[in-house]
Amino acid sequence: MPKRILIVDDEPNIVLSLEFLMKKSGYEVTTATDGDQALAAVDRDNPDLVLLDVMMPRKDGYQVCQMLRERADLPDLRIVMLTAKGRDVEREKGLSLGADDYITKPFSTQDVVDKVDELLGAS
Amino acid sequence: MPEWLIIVTPFVYLGLLFAIAYVADQRARSGRSLVNNPYVYTLSIAVYCTAWTFYGSVGRAAQDGMSFITIYLGPTLVAIVWWLVLRKMIRIAKQHRVTSIADFIASRYGKSMLLGGLATFIAVVGITPYIALQLKAVSASFDALISFPDGAGGAAAGTALLGDKAFWVAGLLAVFAILFGTRNIDATERLEGMVVAVAFESIVKLVAFLAVGVFVTFVLYAGPADLVQHAREQEALRELLSFRDSPGGYGSWLGMMLLSMAAILFLPRQFQVTVVENVNEDHLRVASWLFPLYLLLINIFVLPIALAGLLYFGDTPVSPDNYVLALPLAEGNELLALFVYLGGFSAATGMVIVATIALAIMVSNDLFMPALLRIRHWPVIERFGLRRLIIYLRRGIIVGLVLLGYAYFRLIAETYALVSIGLISFVAVAQFAPPILLGMYWKGASRPGAVVGLVAGFAIWAYTLFLPSLMDPGWLPAGPLDGGPFGIALLDPHALFGLRGLDPITHALFWSMLGNVGSIVVISLLTRQSDIERIQAALFVDVFLRSEQDTRFWQGNATIGDVEALLARFVGEERARKALAHYLPRGDDPAEAAGRQAPPGLVNHAERVLSGTIGSASARVMVSSIVQGEALTFEGVMQILDATSQAIEYSQRLEQKSRQLEQATSELRAANERLKELDQLKDEFVSMVSHELRTPLTSIRAFGEILMNNPDMDGDQRHEFLDVVVRESERLTRLINQVLDLSRIESGWSAWQLQTVDLRDIVHEGAEATSQLFRDRDLALQQDTPEQPCYVKGDADRLIQLVINLLSNAVKFSDPERGAVRVSLATRGSFHELRVTDHGPGIPEHERERVFDKFHQISDQQAGKPKGSGLGLAICKRITDLHWGTIHAENADAGGASFVVRLPEAGGEHCDIG
Amino acid sequence: MADGDRQRSVRSPSSRAERLVALFAVAFLLLNYPLLSLFAGDALAFGIPVLYLYLFLAWAGVIALTGWIMSRRHRH
Question: Is the complex ipTM more than 0.90?
Answer without folding.
Answer: yes
